[in-house]
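Hi P.,

Sorry for the delay on this. The queue was packed all week, but I finally got your sequence through. Input first:
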Amino acid sequence: MKKLKFMFAVLLIIFGSILVGLPSNSLGATGNNIMHLAGIGCLIAAIFIAKGKKDTKRRTKRECDV
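Then the structure:
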């Protein structure tokens, strides 16, 4: 399952980078801004997917003092 999340994050990074870096004259300034925002959204989503959940179990006092 961890590899699947990683591959999905890599695909989102690639797709987001393409959207951010690809200018399109036919869309105009507003279309380019929308493409940039969508690309940045894909990059942020990839970061959250790759980051995942941390281990949130409670630690004992002895583990915290180490």
